[in-house]
Amino acid sequence: MSSSANSPPSPELSLDRPCVSFVTPNKGKQLLSLGYYLFKCNKATSSKRYWICMENGCGVFVHTDLNNKFLSITGGHNHVARPNIIEMKAPKEKMKPRILNETTSITKIYDEEIAPAGVAESVAAQFLTVIKYCLSVAFCLMANRRASTCTELFQRLKHVAKASGTQFAPTNIVSDFDAALVPVVRQEFPDAKHSGRLFYFIQTVHRKMMCLGLNDEYAQCQETHEQCKQLIALSLMPLQEAERQFKCFRNIASESVEDLFTYFERQWISEKVPLTMWNFHELDHRTNDILAGNQIIQFKMKLVIVDLAHVF
């Protein structure tokens, strides 16, 4: 791609002028989309707009004129592209005004907008699902994420519930894939079903890909891209098929992703994180963006109003 008619090609750009597009997320500020990467406007002058990659620590900049016509790009991405995020933006933009202005149920709006958008099943699974009768009753500011701290937290919540004349006995627990939390949940709530979030499972695998230096190859090599997506797709397969399919994928995997498969086997297949925790095949809701960032505990019990002053 040349910056002018007579200048030589820039090493950062392709020979064809990149196609940029724009999306408007929930916060209302326009984002630039280029090559499955998103950029936010960093500053504007009387003649140009300067866009910076949305990923923290990434030093890629895109320049456009005031009419949003592409001018140039500098730098190289230090993270993998996330085409799924781009695919999700368009239907989300259509959903928001309908949810705000129509009396149609949110679930029906989702169904009506996702199907025509033609997004892949793996992408559709990442849309938030409306969960009925789910209410957070306690927010806990933790000093650390050690197992002893998690144990103390659960003990105090049990104490508060008992003082209110009920029992804190979750049947389903949803959390991040925290190494300290998993054994504590197993100890404190042996009969509960403990599962993770699809969003954080995908994010964790993507971050490992970045650490292994696969970001460029993932974005540019179709074979590598497909093999990485196959690993992530294991989370949506029937539980009894996941381990067998992993072995099949590994037997035909290219050498460039061998380290990624080794990590995946140690972390996810060999029970460091139980397979049942990251398998989402039979779950009604596989992720929940509204409650992301909180430890979500769904339990079948009467609502307990927790006085946080007595918890900590």
UniProtKB/TrEMBL annotation:
One of its GO terms (molecular function) is zinc ion binding. InterPro entries: MULE_transposase_dom, Znf_FLYWCH. Residues 131-202 form the MULE transposase domain. The keyword Zinc applies. Residues 22-79 form the FLYWCH-type domain. Keywords: Metal-binding, Zinc, Zinc-finger. This is MULE transposase domain-containing protein. It comes from Adineta ricciae.
